Amino acid sequence: MINRSKQVLRVDLALIAEMVAPGARVLDVGCGDGALLDWLGQHKQVDGRGIELSMAGVAAAVSHGLSVVQGDADTDLSYYPDDSFDYVILSQTLQATRDPRRVLANMLRIGKHAIVSFPNFGHWRIRMDISLHGRMPVTDTLSYQWYETPNIHFCTIRDFLVLCQDMNIGVLRSVALGRSGNVLPNIWSNLLAAQGMFLLSRGT
Amino acid sequence: MGTTGPSDIDPATGKPWGLNFPVITIGDMVQVQARLLDALGIDQLFCVVGGSMGGMQVLEWCSNYPERVFSAVPIATAAKHSAQNIAFHEVGRQAIAADPDWCDGAYLEQGKNPDRGLAVARMAAHITYLSEPALHRKFGRNLQERKGFSYGFDADFQVESYLRYQGSTFVERFDANSYLYITRAMDYFDLAEEHGGVLANAFKGTKTRFCVMSFSSDWLFPTSESRTIMRALNAVAANVSFVEVQSDKGHDAFLLDEPQFHATLKGFLQGAADHRGLAP
């Protein structure tokens, strides 16, 4: 097994890792090459599993000895039994799912907690792009043109919190992140945060 | 083929078993393997690996002897034999039965061998192991050592010549009746059926680490079959990895040197060895 433990975790992944309790069972949905799962296994003795769409990502993760299946959040989550994980993680992927509401519901059915991060469509730069330039936003975190983007369900942080309320999802922690993944004070985050990150639980 | 087969001598009659040999199942094969391990004094296997019918045996191992399998790699296989696959097997069996030298299964007693029937069975089966892109790359419509068509029924095309060769070499190493019994064993395999129609029940409580693998161009055991296995394993919260390897070589890919397949398998085995506390 190649030791990647010395590698530095991406800032947003490090924040997610911090929310996970040691020894927990974790499902990382859209786990890429498994960097977060690897780190959690090495540093927090987590029993981790992953789901990843790209074959290159799955192959890289499995080649590193991680338990990862090829699949996607929309179709594969429904096959997991209730309460099979302590945390289900969905990092930067919610906006690319076909049915985000069902994905969220499945995450909190499978897991006691969910950790979700997504690009905030309420960020002031995006509002400027639309209101001043009349163009769909193309930013560092959203680097696609409208006709080629895999991101089909954008939301603002406020939209997301309203959905959580509708679904009776408890928000245990919310973190506002700047453009470089830096943590911002939790004030006017719907305007100032490039990304939102949330630790969620069932019930309010 | 195997430990004992239809070409062996039935001690009761002193003649080859032929069609009096009992029909066997994948479960029987695995039971024999388990008894061998008992005799050898081996309690647990570090990893059970197999492709195609071997993959069915892997699944049967994990279902019937879960505590004896630390890790498992079912490759290019399925939890049940599909209608299409049964159909291809039936073509092969009928080809053998249509050969007069088969003698209703008693060819050994008659000093004959149904070479033509078995060769045709192998030719049909061999096509199912390949893919259109692989056949096209290898042969296209190229002609076999000639400049034009013969306007007859010789093997004008390279692909015909290749299949004939595959058929003729197969009969040298394979017993026709064994072919009937082994294809039948695969036809009868349906792991979900043995567990109340729910595949996940076959793996309930399993602690085995799984790595399910399929190949993108395999139409005999397509990726959808592996996905079914993966989802059943997820349904019982098993420790499972699943990779579809990109390859245009069809079902045969699992026997060939596919770098990504081997790299993934190696990584999985190393990861499993780490968890088992085995030295690298």
CATH 2nd-level architecture of the largest domain in chain B: 3-Layer(aba) Sandwich
Mean pLDDT of chain B: 96
Radius of gyration of chain B from CA coordinates: 21 Å
Largest Cβ-defined interface? A-B, 21 and 28 residues
- List how many beta strands of chain A DSSP finds: 8
According to DSSP, the number of beta strands of chain B is 4
Strand order of the largest sheet of chain A: 3-2-1-4-5-8-6-7
The residue fraction in helices of chain A comes out at 25-40%
Element pattern of chain A in H and E: HEHEHEHEHEHHEEHE
Largest sheet of chain B: 4 strands, parallel
Q: How many distinct domains of chain A?
A: 1
Secondary-structure element pattern of chain B, one letter each: HEHEHHHHHEHEH
Which CATH-level-2 architecture of chain A?
3-Layer(aba) Sandwich
Instruction: Please identify the structural class of chain B as seen in this structure.
Output: alpha/beta
For this structure, what is the CATH class of the largest domain in chain B? Alpha Beta
Descriptive notes:
The complex is a heterodimer of chains A (204) and B (280). Chain A is α/β, with parallel strands linked by helices and 204 residues long. Chain A has one domain (11-120, 155-202): Vaccinia Virus protein VP39 (Rossmann fold), CATH 3.40.50. Chain A has helices at residues 11-19, 35-44, 55-63, 73-76, 100-110, 124-131, 157-166, 189-192, and strands at residues 25-29, 47-52, 67-70, 85-91, 111-119, 169-177, 183-184, 195-202. An eight-stranded mixed sheet of chain A has the order 3-2-1-4-5-8-6-7, sandwiched between helices. Chain A starts with 10 loop residues before the first helix and ends with a strand. Chain B is of the alpha/beta class and 280 residues long. Chain B folds into two domains: 44-80 and 191-276, Rossmann fold, CATH 3.40.50.1820; 84-186, Rna Polymerase Sigma Factor, Chain: A (Orthogonal Bundle). In chain B, helix 8 (223-235) links the parallel strand 3 and strand 4 (239-245). The longest helix of chain B has 18 residues, at 259-276. The model of chain B has no long low-confidence stretch (mean pLDDT 96). The A-B interface holds A 1, 49, 55, 58-59, 61-71, 76, 79-81, 84 and B 209, 211-212, 227, 230-231, 234-237, 239-246, 260, 263-264, 266-268, 270-272, 274.
